[in-house]
Design brief:
By secondary structure, this protein is an alpha+beta fold. It folds into 3 domains: 2-53, RNA-binding S4 domain (Structural Genomics Hypothetical 15.5 Kd Protein In mrcA-pckA Intergenic Region, Chain A); 63-124 and 214-238, 2-Layer Sandwich (Alpha-Beta Plaits); 129-209, Alpha-L RNA-binding motif (Alpha-Beta Plaits). It is 22% helix and 30% strand. It has helices at 4-10, 16-24, 115-122, 142-150, 189-196, 227-238; strands at 2-3, 28-30, 33-34, 40-41, 47-49, 52-53, 63-68, 96-97, 106-112, 130-137, 153-154, 157-158, 163-170, 175-182, 200-209, 212-213, 222-224. Strands 7, 8, 9, 10, 13, 14, 15, 16 and 17 form a 9-stranded mixed sheet that branches. The protein has a 4-stranded antiparallel sheet with strand order 3-2-5-6. The chain is elongated. The model has no long low-confidence stretch (mean pLDDT 92).
């Protein structure tokens, strides 16, 4: 017997966190009875999500690295009819993005149906690094860079220390290019960090997620992760446990 949210996640329907949200919203049923958090299921129990029976025979795992383009949302579906990152991947399996990138943010994004790996990569304790290149309005100096490094207050809570470096600046256009590496995953974190020191982000690209980057991938293109890469991603959690 396993907790219902873990089973849903392990079968690749969605992440464990999203599974818990679906349960709280009353969209999950076990043998025709509405599920609640903490319910456990066995191999013979029938699970329905949004009226659809969950295929418990689906054990195939898929892992994709996408160079996310602008103008698509990091969700599995969108009630406004906008293109989603899942729409860009040619697969019959139900996959979902690992974490989020804003509608106008580009770059490295992982998609999978492996709930265990997803939970490992988004769990705060594992400190998975994400590196971004931000184009901001204004000329940033050393004082502001040090503020980013030491943490700034966003949404009432100080961010963890991070890596930040001024890559270049252009006085004619009054813009700066800044490399920043964080290991948290708070909502709109990078944009809010720059806002906290008085700078507006004009363009944001995620260059790296852990050791993965978009080398060889044009905007909107993707590839499957190699078994070695998947194993290495799993090891990121093992080393920190």
């Amino acid at each position: 017997m396993e907790r219902i949210q873990k089973v849903i996640s392990n079968l690749g329907y969605t992440s464990r966190r999203k599974a818990e949200k679906l349960i709280e919203e009353g969209k999950v049923y076990i043998n025709s009875k509405q599920a609640i958090l903490g319910d456990k299921v066995g191999n013979n129990d029938i699970i329905k999500i949004n009226g659809e029976v969950l295929d418990r025979n689906n054990k195939q795992k898929e892992y994709y690295l996408l160079n996310k383009p602008r103008g698509c949302v990091t969700t599995t579906s969108d009630n406004l009819g906008r293109k989603t990152v899942v729409d860009l991947i040619a697969t019959d399996l139900k996959i979902y993005p690992v974490g989020r990138l804003d509608y106008d943010t580009t770059g490295v994004l992982l998609l999978t149906n492996d709930g265990d790996l997803t939970n490992l990569l988004i769990h705060p304790k594992n400190n998975i690094e994400k590196t971004y290149l931000a184009k901001v309005k204004g000329i940033i100096g050393g004082v502001e860079i040090n503020k980013l490094k030491n943490g700034v207050v966003i949404d009432g809570k100080k961010t963890s220390k991070c890596k930040a470096k001024l890559k270049s600046y252009n006085k004619k256009t009054n813009t700066s290019m800044v490399l920043i590496t964080i290991h948290e995953g708070r909502n709109h974190q990078v944009k809010k960090m720059f806002e906290a020191i008085g700078f507006e982000v004009l363009k944001l690209t995620r260059l790296k997620f852990a050791f993965l980057d978009t080398t060889g991938l044009k905007s909107g293109e993707y590839r499957k992760l190699t078994p070695k890469e998947v194993k290495r991603l799993y090891s990121l959690g093992d080393k920190l446990e």
